[in-house]
Amino acid sequence: MPTEKFMNLGDYKKQAILDAMHTEFMTTPYSEIRISSLIKRAGISRASFYLYFESKDDLFACMMRQRRERLEQGLVEAFREKRGTFHESMELLVERIMTDESYRDCWEFCRRMLEDETCREVAVRTEAEFGGRRLREKSEKECFEAMDRTGYGELNEERLRCAIEMGLLVIIRISMLQLDQAADPRELKNMVYQQFAILDRGIRD
């Protein structure tokens, strides 16, 4: 995993290294990415690279975590700002995802990862190593605490967690379609809002 030395780097230097990995990742099959190319693109020495990381997998883990945290942050922000129902909060998240360019990179990364078999294997291992599940559970707990649970009967954190995870799968799907310009954005929104309404009714029972 990324060392403390990397985590304590200045934002500019840290981002330059992550950007180098992103460029390589988006243009080169994961199995063909070389440390020599990464360090040249990032403008660092090989010694510096190994001071911060054990391997390119470690650097990929850092890039993956950065994007995961961006999405988790957006989820929590939507619930906190809306302080309403499940579907209202999820709709706010979708609105931002479809209009804010800062999310586009997350979806392009996600699609590339799904397309590359070697990368998918690394991603599964990375998810377990850096505590991706713990990060999700923390975010989902914050969403539970922020939402208006009036009218939700016996709703608990576990049921909300399941609804959020299903909702995020829907969001991933429509985001892929938006990237490919495969459907009108208004139609995509209507489709995903209908799914959220169904999930909302499910956790009210």
The biggest beta sheet, please? Answer: none
Morphology call: elongated
Rounded to the nearest angstrom, the radius of gyration is 19 Å
Rounded mean pLDDT is 86
Structural class: mainly alpha
- Unreliable spans are none
Number of strands: 0
Number of H/I helices: 11
Order of helices and strands: HHHHHHHHHHH
Strand share of the residues? under 5%
Q: Give the termini distance in whole angstroms.
A: 43 Å
- Binned, the helix content reads over 70%
Describe the protein.
- The protein is 78% helix and 0% strand.
- With 205 residues, the protein is mainly alpha-helical.
- The longest helix has 27 residues, at 56-82.
- It starts with a helix and ends with a helix.
- The mean pLDDT is 86.
Quick rundown:
With 205 residues, the chain is mainly α.
Supply the key terms.
mainly alpha, 0% strand, 205 residues
Task: Give the SSE layout.
Elements: H1 4-7, H2 11-27, H3 35-42, H4 46-52, H5 56-82, H6 86-99, H7 104-115, H8 117-129, H9 132-146, H10 157-179, H11 185-204
Helix pairs in contact: 2-3, 5-6, 5-8, 5-9, 6-10, 6-11, 7-10, 9-10, 10-11
